[in-house]
From TrEMBL, chain A:
Membrane-traversing stretches: 20-40, 47-68, 74-95, 107-130, 167-187, 216-239, 245-263, 270-290, 302-325
A Pfam family matched in the record: BPD_transp_2
Top-level lineage group: Bacteria
Protein's name according to its UniProt entry: Branched-chain amino acid ABC transporter permease
Keyword Cell membrane: yes
UniProtKB/TrEMBL annotation, chain B:
Stretches that traverse the bilayer: none
Family statement: Belongs to the leucine-binding protein family.
Organism: Terrilactibacillus laevilacticus
Protein name: Branched-chain amino acid ABC transporter substrate-binding protein
InterPro entries registered for this protein in UniProt: Leu-bd, Leu_Ile_Val-bd, Peripla_BP_I
UniProtKB/TrEMBL annotation, chain C:
Coiled coil region boundaries: none
Pfam families: BPD_transp_2 (PF02653)
Protein name (database record): Branched-chain amino acid ABC transporter permease
Region named Disordered: 411-433
InterPro entries: ABC_transp_permease, LivM-like
Organism expressing this protein natively: Terrilactibacillus laevilacticus
Localization of this protein: Cell membrane
Keywords: Cell membrane, Membrane, Transmembrane, Transmembrane helix
Mode of membrane association: Multi-pass membrane protein
The keyword Cell membrane appears for this protein: yes
Segments crossing the lipid bilayer: 20-53, 59-76, 88-110, 116-139, 151-174, 180-199, 220-246, 280-299, 311-344
Amino acid sequence: MLAHIIQTLPQVIVDGLTLGVVYAVVAIGYTMVYGILELINFAHGEIFMSGAFIGTTVLLILSSVGFLSSVPAILAFIIIIVIASLATGFLGMGIERVAYRPLRSAPKLITLITAIGVSFLLQDIVRFIAELKTGNYIVSAPSLFNDKIHLKTSAILPQFGDALFKSSFLVVLIVAIIMLVALDFFVNRTKWGMAMRAVAQDRETASLMSINVNKVISVTFFVGSALGGATGVLFMIQYGTIDPYIGFILGIKAFTAAVLGGIGNIRGAMVGGLLIGFLEMFAAANLSTLTHGAFGAEYKDIFAFAILIAVLIFKPEGLFGKAVVEKV
Amino acid sequence: MKSKKVVSLIATAALAFGIISGCSSSKGGSSGSGGKQVIKIATQSPLSGGSATLGEAIKLGAQLAISDQKKAFAKKGFDLQLVPYDDQADPKKGVSNAQQIGSDKSILGVIGHLNSGVTIPSSEIYEKNQLAMISPAATATDVTDRGLKVVNRVCARDDFQGPAGADFAVNTLKAKKIFVIQDKTAYGSGLAEAFRDAAKKLGADIIGYEGITVGEKDFNGVISQAASKKPDLIYFGGVYAEGGLIIKQARDKGLDIPIMGGDGLDSSSTVQIAGDSVKNVYLTSVAGDVTKVAAGKKFVDAYKAKFGKGVESYSSYGYDATGVLLKAIMSAIDKNNGKLPTREAVSQAVRAIQDYQGIINKVGFDNKGDNKFAKVYIFKFDKAAYPAVQQKAISK
Amino acid sequence: MRKLVDLFSQNKKAQLLLFIVYVAVTSLSLILAQQSVVAFLLLLFSILLLYFLKLNTKAKWIIGLLIVAVLIPFSASQGQAYESYMDVATLVGIYCAMALGLNIVVGFAGLLDLGFIAFFAVGAYTYGIFASAQASKFLHFGHFPLSGESFWIFILIGGIVAAIFGILLGIPVLRVKGDYLAIVTLGFGEIIRIIFNNLDHPINITNGSMGIASIAPPKIFGIVIANASQFYYVALAILLVVIYIVTRLEHSKIGRAWKAIRDNEIAGQAMGIPLVKTKLTAFAIGASFSGMMGVVFAAKQTYVDATSFTLLESTTVLVMVLLGGMGSVPGVILGAAVVTILNLQVLTEVSNWLNQLNTNGVISVPDALSPAKMQRFIFGLLLILFALYRPKGLIPAKNQKYDANKLKKSTTKSMYVEPQVSNDKKASGGSEI
């Protein structure tokens, strides 16, 4: 039993890492918005999905005009990811302006419900457009990076099996890491980042320090959504097939990751995302081996949700968060 | 205070009237164009959701059959119409639609459903209304095993399709170690279970039996598990949305072994999703390759001309099921001296059909409503193109 | 014009007369037109009109009951669409009770629950397992399926089991608040659904994704209840009980405690409200309504599987509560009715109508636009618009007004005061003239 788990471990780590970075970047979107507005932006998963669809559209247009064959794949990829993240960034800003800003002083419950509404709306609009254009809302994109890479992990330790992955995995990993590092720099080292942290800490005091709170919130939404949209493109590159409903469950899992890391904490969200991705992959690959077939891979989602509930109950501030004392 | 109340009253009234006005003209009377009596045929299949491609094919097949026979019915003084319902693959919606269908007395028969899980509760309603139902696609054993008088199907049962696939996998493909994946839906589990049990009996070793979640895109966990166990064949019970991805991700993991699936994979979307990886994929289908017979080629051309789409697996079965139903209605009309027959007469006439020549195979119902001539076909994808190449036809 | 309206809103007789004419016309047209969805909906709409009439509460109840229990079934039974109407009406009843249950949790106690459908599932599976041959697959004693007579006990059992699940969920959830609570309940709802969908091994309890078929229909005095028109009365009876309980609870001690912790938990706690007990009761009572209706649902469908209990369903119930007005009992009933009818009848009808136009070549609407597929779009739009412009819903909740002097006088008497809608109307109407 143990031999089997060790043997699959390299492959599980590679796959878990792929899924994990996707979760991590999406989780950051949740955590940024939550940190600043204390709102679970349920629509963030749908922004991720919209990014994937916008990316696919651009990709399909590029390939139909014959652009793809004339330039290296990596250049086409950069164009796609930039367009998609700009578009979703503005989409996120627009959503905030229309649906969240008028409700900033309303009870939290109401804003949360609006967020669910936005998420439904986006799902159906994308479904509608995709169905109108292609007759089927499950859309497949041509793959840009298709080389298979064989990682001889068995050379390190004889018990290990080999890991196999596509070159798209490397692209996903590198781009995600670049985004994470850039974001970390942006939040911790720039003026806007400082303003963001100030608004997150205390909105009123920040506005007294001549920070334009509305603008900062807009920028937060832009950055978070652009990251989400870019992740959507990464997802599309990696899995090749998307539908309008990919955002919802993925969004919930990414939120789980954000909570696991301590909501509002950007580095926590990264770690949380990687952890959830890895755990999920591990559960899918090994649950039935571990339980001798009593529970199979179909229970992996329970695993993710159970972790969420356990964390919230025993360590509500998350792994890296600070406990907040309620102000009375 | 007062104005608020008025506003709330107006708001509710506006909402309610908006709803009402929406369906004001939705119900036509029972007399159609030119004073002819209207006969309606309802289809119920998922037109939205994950299996919309298959559901749409059933609807279009039925539509083609109806437009083919419209003239024959017009001669007898009837106006034939199609009413498509969307069951969204949701049992609750299916039952609610079934009630509506039952209440529209001009509907004399139902073609549908795609999913066994929807067929089972909905057919109870048809039974109460004595309304004949012919399913082109519901393969679960429970559909006909409950012994309802109105329930019929033209496709093969799970306990025929699964074992047929297992027989092919073990005896023809010589698979010794089989890894089974299923999608945890009524359809996928039923088929995968039937396959697993039959394959076990034939002496194959089932080295894994795992479930996945419908709607997800990453199945690498399960596939890694499969890869590490080094199977000779992977069997997938489920539909194309997940099946295509599993095929693709398995090939990415270097699993170049044959992958086998059921009729849920028999769709152009499988090829679209899996791309080149679809080579060396086998599938069992209850619908045969229509292009092999002359009548089928004509059907494919007519379908393409009318809808601008290629045929899907269930297009021909939707067409045949409707054809059977229309033939039954016709004979019931004749029995009733050219007058509109009752629903009961129609459902009896449907069950009485013994040798209807469909596009590919014959249709004749036994006393449970299963098609005596139902066959299972084995297909193989040699290249990334749909339809796949037919390998074998297995009859009972 | 305004004066006329004011005059009309004051005149009881004129209102009553107009109302009777309205009901008579709609029910007659339902009888005569045989198959008019419009007439059916207009007749249902009369209940709402009745709510706005200036009559005393008792008279309203009696008239309302007459319409719902006698007039609607009678006029519908004359047409062919009888069972179809009654099926929709039964589902309206089921969803009303569920929405009222959620209203206790969300509207009264302010605990956002995104996994509410789980309790419905618990109720449905409780009856489904024991009223079919399923139970004999894991229980080796007793004789299954239980007969249809057990249905009536199972309504209670379903409610109790769901309440237990509600408390089980409540205990860990008490430690989290607000948004966290929403996400935990969402997780809980998904866990329940996944477990039900997978519990065919190691022990076959729910038959996994194959679902449980051939559930015994209820029986009473030897009569088998199998038609929607019969289930309608079952659902109606339970709904009435639920409405009674909810209206009694709303103004009781526990009801006021719920609202107090909703508005300010810390202040409520300081006033001596036991937080744990109050929240758990809200979960338990809300869940039990849902569980009871789950039993009815399983018996009506004769088939349960996990696909009926998805996250979309939880959100649908939430939309009902929000649309009608959080915390407002009549509002929630209206919301549930509107959403259910919209979903099951209107969208399908409009789609069919569009399709007919398509086939007749009048207009050409792409298939993707079919309203039946637009459910999410419509819900999303409703949620946003209502949150933005009408956050209190169609019929906003009213806080009961207490007369301080009256209270002082009658401290020894019962604290319960009838919520007098008409009184307050009178006062405000008079002042504005």
